Amino acid sequence: MVWSTLAQHLLTKPRAPREAGHSTAAALAERLQNLSNEKLGRSLAIRHVDAGSCNGCELELRAIQNMVYDLTQYGLSFTPSPRHADVLLITGVAARNMAEALRQTRAAMPDPVFTIAVGDCAVDGGVFKGSPAITGGADSILTVDLMISGCPPTPGQIIDGLLSLIEAHTGGK
Ligand code: SF4
């Protein structure tokens, strides 16, 4: 049953629409920088945890850091240390074997922390939904503030999601 479901999902077109050119993403990123400065008084630091990804979502996360999107110039950066991070960004299926690592990472982060599930796998298991090896989404392990669906979501969708999150916590602009 799991294999037939997996095959069905793999043969289905990706749900994420391809959109948001890099000029759109740059505009979003600039707003994000302004809002993160307003909310946090500084740049936004992100701790990313791969909780069982195929690496498709990671390619998009790398894309938002490349020379086209270049989000570092807007104050958006990834950090290897959870103690320096404001955002816990989770990709992958939230495998049972990663549950404790996710909990420990969250526990090491100083409040306030925004938790984001990026990609269909982190949202609800995606194409692997129903597998006994997964928990059924990041929110089955931690409280998740924002879910960004797509397989994988585009850089524009990821930036837009970060923007929405900050706007929601600042009451918009
Ligand atoms: S959502 Fe899609 S691209 Fe992202 S980890 Fe899952 S299968 Fe891979």
Could you explain how this protein is built, in words?
The chain has 173 residues and is α/β, with parallel strands linked by helices. It has a single domain, classed as Rossmann fold. The chain has six helices and five strands. A five-stranded parallel beta sheet has the order 2-1-3-4-5, sandwiched between helices. Helix 2 runs parallel beside helix 6 (155-170). The site of iron/sulfur cluster (SF4) has 13 residues, from helix 3 and helix 5. Iron/sulfur cluster (SF4) binds at residues 53-54, 56-57, 91-92, 119-121, 126-127, 151-152.
Low-confidence stretches: 16-20
Helix residue percentage: 25-40%
Radius of gyration: 16 Å
DSSP strand content: 5-15%
Bound molecules: iron/sulfur cluster
What is the typical, i.e. mean, pLDDT?
82
Largest sheet: 5 strands, parallel
- Anisotropy-based shape: globular
Q: How far from one another are the termini?
A: 48 Å
Number of helices: 6
Structural class of the secondary structure composition?
alpha/beta
Tell how many strands the DSSP assignment holds. Answer: 5
Q: What would CATH call the architecture? A: 3-Layer(aba) Sandwich
Q: What fold name goes in the CATH topology slot? A: Rossmann fold
Which strand order do you get reading across the main beta sheet? 2-1-3-4-5
- The run of helices and strands is HHEHEEHEHEH
CATH top level is Alpha Beta
Could you give the topology of this structure?
Elements: H1 2-10, H2 22-40, E1 44-50, H3 56-63, E2 76-78, E3 87-91, H4 99-108, E4 114-118, H5 120-124, E5 146-148, H6 155-170
Helix pairs in contact: 2-6
Bound molecules: iron/sulfur cluster.
Residues 53-54, 56-57, 91-92, 119-121, 126-127, 151-152 line the site of iron/sulfur cluster (SF4).
